[in-house]
């Protein structure tokens, strides 16, 4: 019981940097406002993610409601916002009082589409007005051409640096992630997240994860990889041990209608990781210290 209370107190300070919210095409459990109502006092804050829209406008009117609960905006550079669009990054950042997270392509990444039948799984969609497209009908976004980043990708990096945003790699391939992180570090971007690299459609070797951590990126480890994708917790624990907790962040990646709320997901995750040998200090580092460091750089 004492340990449980300690973990609850850690999560009250935690920043969950990966929480899906609506409204969007996919059914979501929360809007920004209802998430605050459900999680205030249980979680320190959350980065709001949409595959389709910048989430900074969702936050703008919630300053009074969200006191003592930090809301972080983001944008995912999918086809819905014009892909690798620096203007969209600038616009999203202009509505935020603090750093936003910029995800490189997720559902529009060529790497993701090449391994998926649909851009969006039909069973995920609600409403008759949206017809999911077959992946082959969608132009996938690549961020490298031959051995180098595309000019569009590099221009987005310049914009991320200019607005002081956090870079997240999205669902691009391991090699694209490697080149992205190296290029970002080369121009002085210090806040970088390698997005759930253990995900089956990414499958980044842990040796590469460790390499990218060594040049300044944080490796994201998500509860949803276990709860939705069925990746064993032991495999994720081995991943963290190889990379090092000092270079990892724990996120929930929840917001799906049937998923638990973020604080409950993170508590469940911590309980399971404790059985793999992690300590209170490890959890505080991955849930509190490291996410706050990302947003402070």
Summarize the structure.
With 297 residues, the protein is an alpha/beta fold. The chain contains twelve helices and eleven strands.
Describe the structure.
By secondary structure, this protein is α/β, with parallel strands linked by helices. The chain has a single domain (2-296), classed as Metal-dependent hydrolases (TIM Barrel). 40% of the residues lie in helices and 13% in strands. It is built from 12 helices and 11 strands. The strands form 3 sheets. It has a 6-stranded parallel sheet. The protein has a 3-stranded parallel sheet with strand order 1-2-3. Helix 1 (2-13) runs parallel beside helix 12. The longest helix is centred in the C-terminal third of the chain and has 17 residues, at 280-296. The chain is globular. The termini are far apart.
